[in-house]
């Protein structure tokens, strides 16, 4: 089983690893697109104003442009340590076993697909960004990322957001949706709870001794971890919470 995580806009700073080496990353079939995007981001960083517009940033986020300018020289750290935020707090990757971490991968607008241990620098690029001369990222990634994911010979549990899933669909994957159920029975998506419970679900799946082969297996593991889940067809599970974020 491979659990595919979304990235985060926020990244941890620093690192102790050597500067980025594309040859050290997994999935070498993605190297050409990675190099194209790296070169484009570094070049764009020379134009701070243009970078802010292309990356959808505000005037107080020029430090993100500075990060991109140093992509090829700044220190690296493993992907699971680089990404931060609500989902990654709930995942608590530092306390996972090596076996559990090996069952995780991260989707990335810049790198396509990362193993948990792949060493990467801090950067800023989102799935919806449009870089000058390159256009939308979906056009670049889809032809190489989709076959990469299709070649995974185990169940993929896809926890990415829609924008990142569009970069390269994972054929046959089990997807998960988190919905908040109100007292009147209505259901809605709440961003904060969505991320937190996806982190909990990911942790439960990779920590389990079970090896799910379908959505029903994913639901069983989630239920044993205290999550309330429902099956929706053959390839989707829904995780339900209440307004306070508790599993219901």
From TrEMBL:
Instruction: Tell me where on the tree of life, at the top rank, the source sits.
Output: Bacteria
Q: Known Pfam families for this protein?
A: H2O2_YaaD
What InterPro entries does the record point to?
YaaA
PANTHER family per record: PEROXIDE STRESS RESISTANCE PROTEIN YAAA, PEROXIDE STRESS RESPONSE PROTEIN YAAA
Protein name per UniProt: Peroxide stress protein YaaA
Organism in which the protein naturally occurs: Rhodococcus antarcticus
Q: What is the lineage of its organism?
A: Bacteria, Bacillati, Actinomycetota, Actinomycetes, Mycobacteriales
């Amino acid at each position: 089983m491979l659990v595919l995580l979304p990235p985060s806009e926020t990244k941890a700073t620093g690192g102790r690893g050597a500067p980025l080496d594309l040859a050290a990353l997994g999935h070498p079939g993605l190297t050409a697109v990675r190099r194209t995007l790296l070169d484009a981001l570094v070049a764009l960083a020379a134009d701070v104003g243009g970078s802010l517009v292309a990356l959808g940033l505000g005037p107080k986020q020029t430090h993100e442009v500075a990060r991109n300018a140093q992509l090829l020289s700044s220190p690296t750290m493993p992907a699971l340590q680089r990404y931060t935020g609500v989902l990654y707090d709930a995942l608590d990757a530092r306390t996972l076993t090596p076996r559990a971490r090996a069952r995780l991968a991260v989707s990335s607008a810049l790198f396509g697909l990362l193993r948990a241990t792949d060493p990467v620098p801090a950067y800023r690029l989102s799935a919806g960004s449009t870089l000058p001369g390159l256009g939308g990222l979906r056009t670049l990634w889809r032809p190489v990322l989709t076959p990469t994911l299709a070649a995974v010979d185990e169940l993929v549990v896809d926890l990415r957001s829609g924008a990142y899933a569009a970069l390269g669909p994972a054929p046959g994957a089990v997807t998960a949706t988190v919905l908040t159920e109100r007292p009147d029975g209505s259901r809605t998506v709440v961003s904060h709870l969505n991320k937190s419970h996806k982190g909990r679900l990911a942790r439960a799946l990779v920590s389990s001794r079970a090896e799910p082969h379908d959505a029903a297996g994913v639901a069983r593991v989630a239920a044993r971890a205290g999550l309330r889940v429902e099956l929706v067809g053959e390839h989707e599970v829904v995780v339900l919470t209440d307004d306070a974020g508790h599993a219901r």
